[in-house]
Amino acid sequence: MSRIGKLPVNLPQGVTAKIEAGNVVTVKGPLGELKQKVDPDITVTIEEGAVKFTRPTDQPRHRSMHGLYRALINNMVIGVSAGYTIQQELVGVGYKVEAKGQILEFSLGYSHDIHLELPSEIKATAVVEKKGANPVITLKSIDKQLIGQVAAKIRSLRKPEPYKGKGIRFVGEQIRRKAGKSANAK
């Protein structure tokens, strides 16, 4: 039995889940509503304030989907009740970001500015706490997959490089640094 799949997904106060035709699970909460289509082989039931998943056989395909769909529905429940937040910082001289509604405007040392349009489900704020501090982008959403994908896209605009550590990184992330050229190496 899958250790992840056999755990029930408990529904916190204010969160409701229902199963619609075609094995589509809808989760509603104070922050919004999310839907996920579940494979027809996996049986989804809602009982006693929890969502439970069962699989028909122990085939590798059924075992992998069992844990997958349980994790996806759990992420949806957390998203509509508490939401997800990702913070990224821009490390580098002259690196700037400005949030104009759903458009982020980056100045990352290229010859041009980069404009990135965010999906409507994501809210972004760009803050510089004090003079000389690195700008920080805060992304908030109820959809864990979408916010992770957008954060990865933002990071790909200027990945952190290993010699000086410049680039876009997640707050608290440790970058493995490499030693530069040695003056007396032959």
Description of the structure:
- This protein is of the alpha+beta class and 186 residues long.
- It folds into two domains: 9-81, Alpha-Beta Complex (Outer Surface Protein A, domain 3), CATH 3.90.930.12; 84-170, Ribosomal protein L6 (Outer Surface Protein A, domain 3, Alpha-Beta Complex), CATH 3.90.930.
- It has two helices and 13 strands; from the N terminus they run E-E-E-E-E-E-H-E-E-E-E-E-E-H-E.
- Strands 11-12-7-13 form a four-stranded antiparallel sheet, with helices on one face.
- A hairpin with a 3-residue loop joins strand 2 and strand 3 (24-29).
- The longest helix has 22 residues, at 60-81.
- It starts with 8 loop residues before the first strand and ends in a 16-residue tail after the last strand.
- The model has no long low-confidence stretch (mean pLDDT 91).
